């Protein structure tokens, strides 16, 4: 699975993107966030306020309850501040 | 009518010319009665900021703004929609975002432009980082609750 990170999520994790092999138990966006937090303190630092993390699957916004089955690219980022 | 409108969406590092974008939208047409333009600029926050760095999600930025623009086209009788959003480093006074809407009457053009900006603020994948006037790299700008509330008022 390709994961991409933006803004302070990218800075705290320390990389803009990575490919990961997800365990079969990771079925939803919320599962993915919880699993990532177990991968090291940089992930825990980036994702500790899990509820405010915004997620896009294949470049469309999704809620944390969304299933990740069939996703090609999942993006994690802070609330947006454009405009 | 509204089905024929194809929004113009551009995500670019370079500057834009609001007058030229209005001219491109209205040139050769006699049916447009109202054009609203909104320009968002980089401000210096009372002299404290030297620059803003705008990060974006390439691909999704275009796609999401396209979805927002199509929703506007579905909700108001528009004859033209243009959205240009810049990324990269902006100095105080620089343009950041342009929204242009055209309609037969002013109400639709005003409302659609306001809707587009409210939705861009809370749904378009851009993030601003501040750079201080003293040369220090500052913090990421926090999302404002007021912006989420502004977007929520358009929900039906």
Description:
- Chain B: It is an enzyme of class 2 (transferase).
- Chain B: Belongs to the MoaE family.
- Chain B: Its EC number is 2.8.1.12.
- Chain B: Converts molybdopterin precursor Z into molybdopterin. This requires the incorporation of two sulfur atoms into precursor Z to generate a dithiolene group. The sulfur is provided by MoaD.
- The complex is a heterodimer of chains A (83) and B (156).
- Chain A is an alpha+beta fold.
- Chain A has a single domain, classed as Ubiquitin-like (UB roll).
- Chain A is globular, with a radius of gyration of 12 Å.
- The model of chain A has no long low-confidence stretch (mean pLDDT 97).
- Chain A contains three helices and five strands; from the N terminus they run βαβααβββ.
- Chain B has four helices and eight strands, in the order βαββαβββαββα.
- Chain B has a single domain, classed as Aldehyde Oxidoreductase, domain 3 (Alpha-Beta Complex), CATH 3.90.1170.40.
- Helix content of chain B is 33%, strand content 34%.
- In chain B, strands 1-4-6-2 form a four-stranded mixed β-sheet, sandwiched between helices. A four-stranded antiparallel β-sheet of chain B has the order 5-3-7-8, with no helix packed on it.
- In chain B, α2 packs antiparallel against α3 and α3 crosses α4.
- Chain B is an alpha+beta fold and 156 residues long.
- The longest helix of chain B has 18 residues.
- At the A-B interface, loops of A face β3, α2, α3 and β7 of B.
Spatial strand arrangement across the major sheet of chain A: 2-1-5-3-4
- Number of beta-strand segments of chain B: 8
Q: Into which percentage range does the β-strand content of chain B fall?
A: 25-35%
Structural class of chain A: alpha+beta
Strand percentage of chain A lies at: 15-25%
Element order, helices and strands of chain A?
EHEHHEEE
CATH-level-4 superfamily name of chain B: Molybdopterin biosynthesis MoaE subunit
Q: Could you list the spans of chain B in which at least 5 consecutive residues all have pLDDT below 50? A: none
What is the name of the CATH topology of chain A? Ubiquitin-like (UB roll)
Please identify the structural class of chain B as seen in this structure: alpha+beta
Architecture (CATH level 2) name of chain B: Alpha-Beta Complex
Name the CATH homologous superfamily of chain A. Beta-grasp domain
Helix % of chain A is 25-40%
Q: Which strand order do you get reading across the main beta sheet of chain B?
A: 1-4-6-2
CATH topology assignment of chain B: Aldehyde Oxidoreductase, domain 3
Q: Name the overall outline of chain B.
A: globular
Q: Evaluate the radius of gyration of chain A.
A: 12 Å
Mean pLDDT of chain A equals 97
């Amino acid at each position: 699975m390709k994961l991409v990170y933006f803004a302070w999520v990218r800075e705290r994790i320390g990389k803009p993107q990575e490919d990961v092999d997800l365990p079969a138990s990771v079925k939803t966006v919320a599962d993915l966030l919880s699993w990532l937090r177990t991968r090291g303190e940089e992930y825990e630092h980036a994702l500790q306020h899990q509820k405010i993390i915004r997620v896009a699957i294949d470049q469309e916004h999704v809620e944390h309850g969304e299933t990740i089955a069939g996703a090609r690219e999942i993006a994690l980022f802070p609330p947006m501040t454009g405009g | 009518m509204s089905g024929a409108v194809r929004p113009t969406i551009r995500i670019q590092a370079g500057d834009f010319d609001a007058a030229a974008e209005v001219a491109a939208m209205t040139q050769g047409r006699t049916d447009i009665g109202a054009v609203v333009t909104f320009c968002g600029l980089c401000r210096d926050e009372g002299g404290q900021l030297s620059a803003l760095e705008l990060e974006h999600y390439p691909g999704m930025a275009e796609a999401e703004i396209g979805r927002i623009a199509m929703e506007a086209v579905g909700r108001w009788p528009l004859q033209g929609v243009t959205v240009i959003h810049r990324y990269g480093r902006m100095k105080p006074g620089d343009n950041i975002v342009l929204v242009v809407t055209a309609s037969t009457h002013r109400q639709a053009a005003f409302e659609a432009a306001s809707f587009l900006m409210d939705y861009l603020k809370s749904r378009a994948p851009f993030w601003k980082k501040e750079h201080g006037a003293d040369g220090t790299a500052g913090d990421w700008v926090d999302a404002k609750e007021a912006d989420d509330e502004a977007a929520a008022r358009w929900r039906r």
